[in-house]
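Form 7-S
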Amino acid sequence: QVQLVESGGGLVQAGGSLRLSCAASGTIFSSNVMAWYRQAPGRKQRELVASMTSGGSTNYADSVKGRFTISRDNAKNTVYLQMNSLKPEDTAVYYCNIFSTPRVYWGQGTQVTVSS
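Output:
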């Protein structure tokens, strides 16, 4: 059974920074994609924020390029999201996601609130 535990969310002023962490327990195939999604208040769908393959390829939403950085520690099955220059529109619940064919795993979510 794979479980994802997120940490690092909180309240920050616009322009500030936060670092999210997500640690996966259990057995995960070495070839996988780790990602962060977010769901903003009032939105029904989660949007992809950033993803990173086990080989190191990254993908970012246009809205966070240049401000957010995803990284991972494969030995620890942990993925990070460094968020800089935060804006009020970044306010959302952030979810960790791991896609390890054929399964998808989700964390419980961590709240990030950016005040103006």
